[in-house]
Fold this protein.
Amino acid sequence: MRGGQAIAAFIAGDNEEAKQKVITLASEIGYAPVDTGPLYTARYLESMAHLNIEIAVGRGGGTNAAFIYL
């Protein structure tokens, strides 16, 4: 949790049963799971990861960075 809000765990997948297990696990360990839909949405999540790396590391912000989705 960061600033009173849980860090988002974006989850994509085509197997609903498996996705629900990951959503439950993410929630149990303190993340805020966000179901992004089918597996093809993972391509957008990868872009978000690159953006986070650029902001956090490429611009000297350090590695203590994450998305909080409201």
The radius of gyration is 13 Å. The chain has one domain: 8-58. The chain has two helices and two strands. Residues 8-58 form one domain.
